[in-house]
Amino acid sequence: MRAVACILVLLACAAHANRVKRQDDEQTEEDTIKAICKGKGPGEWFRLNPGPAHCKEVVQCTSAGLQQIRCPQGLVFDLVQQTCDWKAAVPNCDLTERPKLPKPLLVTDEPLCEGDSLACAEGTCIARELFCDGNSDCNDGSDENACDMGSDPNRAPPCDVEKCQLPSCFCSEDGTVIPGNLLPEDVPQMVMLTFNGAINNNNIELFNELFSNERVNPNGCPIKGTFFVSHKYTNYTAVQDFHNRGHEIAVFSITQNDAANFWTNASRTDWSNEMAGQRFIIEKFAAISDESVVGMRTPYLRVGGNNQFFMMFEQKFLYDSTITAPLSDIPIWPYTLLNQMPHACHGNAQKCPTRAFPVWEMVMNELDRREDPSVDDDLPGCAQVDSCSNIRTGEQFYRFLDHNFDRHYLTNRAPLSLNFHSAWLKKEENLDYLLLWIEEIQRAFPDTYFVTMTQVIEWMQNTPSSAETKDFDLWLSKCDEPVGFPCIKPGGNNCALHAEEVQGTFNMQTCQRCPTNFPWLSDPTGEGFL
Q: What is Dmax (Cα atoms) for the chain?
């Protein structure tokens, strides 16, 4: 009995020792995680080990411990942008965490500055309006380091429908409210066909077929599209022709600069050179003198934060169509940026505006790419049709168009934006199925109009009912027969040009006199002066 008792005591002692060891191990692991996570922001991804061999793998701190992800093949993790990217675009594989930027002292127990001034991270006081204006005014640059919608001391106010009134302002709390307090059945369904890039011999015939005068809206006007025109390889004689036929010409930049983060971090001068410069080129060489080039879209849909919209205000652009709204059951109507955006800033490392700007945002509602939304699992949406990579056949494309039309028509009838690069429509049967879909939509839904982005804004500023829209005078002006325009010779001049800033010879077609140089950022006139 004494031996058994001793054995039991020994076992109890061993069990107690094991429990203590396990508790010590758990305590040690918990302490280690606490030490690793100290100073890390919520949701911040970081590396446990530096170097190229570990550049794919990052972790973040959660209530359940460390969560790990690994970038797909060919990609590595950019700590600054907090997203996976191509190896060549990521310069921080040797770091373990995102560099800490000095933050201004915006919230303190006691005021640090007098009047309407705020403190930089190092204690210097500067005027409130200098924070988040795109220029570093603090010695440490901290005035530009806390500029999200929750931190910017000059951020736009929330939507106040009593103060924000059409025609100059429109907002709603979640973005889904119909302008003019109309019922959905009293709203015409507007569809916008938009194209990004150059207009030239590669797509002129496609556009002519798509926008044939045989396809007319319920008011008798031919259907219209919006072209966001870039500079290289554009035929400005064709641009002049499409404008003359009532289509909208907008801006897509001069260079389409593909450098990592260029558009995200571009200065106001960069934005002005690219966008106002391209508008100047379009107006000069496509002979557009009616001040109708008022819209823009950014290459790669990279939003440029407050700098982009400061430039738009200064250069008198009416609207932007770059910001994407995440896929939702009820789409969002276009809105003005005089108030806070009604949705999250969507996309990897996007930099949305935080201040108030008198600019319309023709928001790009993400499209639902599921084949059968009633049974398919949720999938991320896509802002441009050609980025919906699962559309492989014409039949799939047709069903995709039908489903997304229903999402708008059967809910709040927010304008449906179908955004393309023309090369995608030239593949296989895509154009044929788009034309078939347009014809069937026009036959089945006689209150549907294919219009430009400016026409949508005109409708929102006046809100005629669906019945009244047939006689809406601002739209009827697009019914006018195109008037021929003078051209130096049939097809215009074919100008072989060079520019100091870009290599190569560029052929530029225009009905105007050939410039001396290829128009570019520092010389949009092509004559060596602005």
A: 118
Is the full-model pTM beyond 0.70? yes
DSSP 8-state class, residue 360 = E
Q: Which residue has the tokens 């599921």?
A: 370
- CATH 3.20.20.370-classified regions of the chain: 179-479
How high is the pLDDT of residue 221?
A: 95
- Reading the block at residue 103, the tokens are 């933050």
Name the token pair of 39.
């100073």
- Please give the Cα distance from 104 to 131 (Å, whole number): 9
Among candidate residues 374, 452, 365, 375, the one with its CA nearest the CA of residue 405: 365
Query: What is the SS3 assignment for 194?
Result: strand
Cα–Cα dist 67/463, whole Å: 50
Tokens standing for residue 344 = 């999250």
- Rounded Cα distance between 175 and 328, Å, is 11
pLDDT of residue 27: 58
What's residue 375's pLDDT? 64
Give the N- to C-terminal CA distance of the chain in Å, as an integer: 107
Could you tell me where in the chain the CATH 4.10.400.10 domains are found? Answer: 104-155
Other CB atoms within 10 Å distance of the CB of residue 345: 18
Q: How far apart are CA 370 and CA 378, in angstroms?
A: 8
Low-confidence ranges of the chain (pLDDT < 70): 1-27, 375, 529-530
Spatial separation of the C-alpha atoms in residues 443 and 298, rounded to whole Å: 35
- Looking up tokens 């409708």 gives 459
The CATH-assigned architecture of domain 104-155 is: Irregular (4.10)
The two tokens of residue 159 are: 């939507």
Place of tokens 């005068």: 213
